[in-house]
Amino acid sequence: MTVLVFLDSAFPDGRPADAGVPQLMINDLGVTRGDGIFESLLAVDSVPRKPDAHLDRLASSAQLLELDIPPREAWERAIATALALHAEAEADDAGHAGRAAVKLVVTRGVEGAAAPTAWVQVTVAPDAAAQREAGIKVLLLDRGYDSLSAARAPWLLLGAKTLSYAVNMAALRYARQHGADDAIFTSSDGKVLEGPTSTVVLARERNGVRTLLTPERRSGILAGTTQDALFKAAEAAGWELGYGPLVPEDLFAADGVWLVSSIRLLVPVRSIDGRELPFSAALNSELARLADAAL
Amino acid sequence: MTVLVFLDSAFPDGRPADAGVPQLMINDLGVTRGDGIFESLLAVDSVPRKPDAHLDRLASSAQLLELDIPPREAWERAIATALALHAEAEADDAGHAGRAAVKLVVTRGVEGAAAPTAWVQVTVAPDAAAQREAGIKVLLLDRGYDSLSAARAPWLLLGAKTLSYAVNMAALRYARQHGADDAIFTSSDGKVLEGPTSTVVLARERNGVRTLLTPERRSGILAGTTQDALFKAAEAAGWELGYGPLVPEDLFAADGVWLVSSIRLLVPVRSIDGRELPFSAALNSELARLADAAL
């Protein structure tokens, strides 16, 4: 089932509502203009994973959009309320609610109204275990922007997780229609950016030194919360860390490439544009364990 | 008042609904992903202006997004229903309903459902007469894309009028915070593109030849329905027409620049980046009359 809890200053713990009936006004700027932001996080047995990182990024997206959003404590309480309701509905005999996808959404509100619309939605998480094990095929797709756009043009909202995801969805459709499962965006000046819904991570071993790399954030990509947690855990386990400018050749020369995100976690990329990548099941398991322990 | 009519195959003339209460599901892809398209058109005394051009462009946007939308006749009937309801509520003693803004919206529908969500919304049109007379100040803002992106990368959805308008809204906020009223986007390779919600048109007279110009569509801009109507009327009145690649210097060298759109119509640009532009009240009235007669 889908649990829905609105953030509402009259309800300190959030206002539960029926997700099975219409709840949004037709002229909410979230739908008429894609004018809002969101986060997706994982909860395991009703415990949210890295909520602080997600609430930090929500605040950062809000700042980029100049959106006045409810305070952190209101989110924490609404998330707790939603997860409790979800557990009531979904928990097994031992009281385990399993893996849930928690979505936080804030829109600029109804046209002409001064208040944002904000809610928490909880659903059973989609099962991505097969993809995490078998891996996926990916296409490189041009994102159109050069890697310096973010610094030059703040109105492009690069680095904000907005509701205006039509291009991300179109890129996924294009990839699927062309024999792949997912995409990696590149900048118009040839740098590796990110997936439509994930962060790119690559591993390489040179002369006994093991390094995890990800594209530099100033290229206008989202700050990956799962990539960040993985990097911290890997560093503690002896890995070196690197923040690119990365080009496609770096992906092909790596010992492994992953698309990393909060719900699907670490998915190994087995081919890019039809060209096979190195893959080690042992390395895949090692990084998955590191990330899992860190979250 | 706001009139709302859903397109619904069970209701050939559309299904009227109360716009004052929530009507959209929380997990409609229109709000969660900005995944949908729209049109805004003017109606005067319940007669829609250039409905065919708007329905053509809606179909073209749908094709770019691979969105299966209701047939044209369903839109025409729903628009007629909505305008009749609006006239009932708003008409004066002489039966005139005045100027109304008609919005057509289609989203990819509720997550997991196969059907789009589609509706027609009618409100009283905002009064832009003062802007049409006095003109506006504009900033040039980089859109990040180069002018060849549209041809190279169809997944960028350039040329589609999508619900993912967060960047357009951010550009308008940026312009207003920096002493202007509106913006004109430029490409990363320095070409003039379009306004966040309008088409750019410029007029120039050289050796007795009067020409209207607008940026070329293949640069990834929306096909302007009002610009197109104006151009046809102007051609019949003896103007030459041109479709640029245009650069900012062309704007400064023109005899007049306008932002053109369906509801606000022709708004003269009085300055760009603080630099004053030539302005002729006579030319402004002449073009406004041409457009008005054509619509």
In a few lines, what is going on in this structure?
Chain A has helices at residues 29-32, 51-65, 72-90, 129-134, 149-152, 166-177, 225-236, 248-252, 281-294; strands at 3-8, 11-17, 36-44, 47-48, 99-107, 117-124, 136-142, 182-186, 199-206, 209-214, 240-243, 256-261, 265-272, 275-276. With 295 residues, chain A is an alpha+beta fold.
Provide an overview of this structure.
Chains A, B: Its EC number is 4.1.3.38. Chains A, B: Pfam families: Aminotran_4. Chains A, B: It is an enzyme of class 4 (lyase). The first copy, chain A, is α+β, with helices and mostly antiparallel strands. Chain A has two domains: 3-124, D-amino Acid Aminotransferase, Chain A, domain 1; 130-294, D-amino Acid Aminotransferase, subunit A, domain 2 (D-amino Acid Aminotransferase, Chain A, domain 2, Alpha-Beta Barrel). Chain A is built from nine helices and 14 strands. In chain A, helix 7 (225-236) crosses helix 9 (281-294). The relative contact order of chain A is 0.14. At the A-B interface, helix 1, strand 5 and helix 6 of A face helix 1, strand 5 and helix 6 of B.
